[in-house]
Amino acid sequence: AWVLQPLPYRAPHELVSVFEKDISKGQRIPVAPGNLRDYAASGVFAEIEPWGASPYNLSGDGDAERIELAEVGPGFFSMLGVDPALGRSFMPGEDRDGASRLIVLAHPFWVDRFQGRENVLGQTVKIDGKVYTIAGVMPREFHFPLFG
Fold first, then answer.
1. How far is CA 140 from CA 88, 100, 105, in A?
2. pLDDT category, 44, cuts 50, 70, 90?
3. Which of 50, 69, 138, 139 could cross-link to 73 by cystine, CB 3.0-4.6 Å?
4. Residue-wise DSSP of 82-136
């Protein structure tokens, strides 16, 4: 589908995913943080942001459940040219140790879990026992690249 329809982001023809390879296993692995900084400093990329996805346990408002969570760098959404429909996304520095833990919800999750309530901003959820504050909700048409 991506070949026939361009990705719904700013300048999708300029987007690339960068991975490293575990030679011993012949598998693609995420870029090590130090290497990501080197890639950013190289000047080859206009912007570069880390991202990944993993399953987590969510608790808080409603029943506990296992969810697939995308972890992104603070400039990820602005790099894609996508703003939240409600609230805000992440700001520079919010990924540093000691910073408040924030989360931006996918639109379908917001509707299913929070019944589309606009007062969800500032509420908290627990992810693997750590408290996160809801900063925003992505637009209905936004889909994380990894999840289609």
1. 15, 26, 11
2. very high
3. 50
4. ---SEE----TTTTSTTSPPEEEE-HHHHHHHHTT-GGGTT-EEEETTEEEEEEE
Summarised one tens digit per residue, pLDDT across range 116-144 is: 999 999 999 999 999 999 999 999 988 87
Tallying the residues shown for the chain, one arrives at: 148
In this prediction, residue 148 carries a pLDDT of 44
Model's pTM, two decimal places?
A: 0.84
Residue 136: alpha-carbon gap to chain centroid? 12
Spacing of C-alpha 66 from chain mean position:
17
**Contact predicate 25/95, CB 8 Å:** no
What's the CA gap between 44 and 34, in Å, rounded?
Answer: 16
